[in-house]
Design a protein that fits this description.
Length: 174
């Protein structure tokens, strides 16, 4: 299953905490953890400084408390935990599935279960909020026709579902 993974397992970048507010990039490959930082400063002695790069193996990262602290300080505990899990060989394959496959899985679930799934990660929340998801949801509703499609294209698919189909589902349950 690990053969399905690309060379880069994870990548994130962002600005570090104040006061220096340096810029950081964290890359986790199959073999190493790479933390690159760019110094952001108006001071003359800092101009033209090359980026600082720390490269370490997965095993060494797990033992390097200083580097772990730095990753946690810049990107937060959740990213540190995820980085540590990757270094231990614990891959989250569900998170790595392409969006079109994830959407197919979501279409097979009840809407209330998809709403619960959307609460588990940013990625699932983004997919749940996507027009693609709501278009498929509306298209499978009883009563979908060309008029509904025209309205959905004008209003948005999620708004159309909430306006036309969600209310009719509530009435059926009463």
């Amino acid at each position: 299953m690990a053969s399905l993974l690309g060379e880069r397992l994870f990548e994130i970048s962002g600005q570090g905490p104040p006061p220096p507010k340096d810029f950081f990039q964290l890359v986790i490959t199959k073999n190493e953890v790479i933390l690159t930082s760019w110094r952001i400063s108006l001071r003359l002695e800092c101009r033209g400084l090359p980026p600082k790069q720390q490269r370490t193996s997965h095993q060494d990262f797990q033992n390097d408390k200083t580097l772990q602290y730095e990753v946690g300080a810049v990107f937060g505990q959740r990213i540190l935990d995820y980085t540590t899990a990757l270094c231990q060989g614990k891959f989250d394959y569900l998170e790595r599935l392409p969006d079109d496959i994830m959407l197919r899985i979501m279409y097979c679930l009840e809407l209330k279960d998809v709403a619960l799934l959307a609460q588990t990660s940013r990625r699932f929340k983004t997919l749940f909020s996507s027009e693609k998801f709501w278009e498929q949801t509306v298209r499978t509703c009883t009563g979908f026709n060309r008029d509904v499609e025209d309205i959905a294209n004008a209003m948005g698919w999620k708004s159309t579902f909430l306006t036309f189909f969600h209310n009719s589902d509530d009435k059926k349950q009463q």
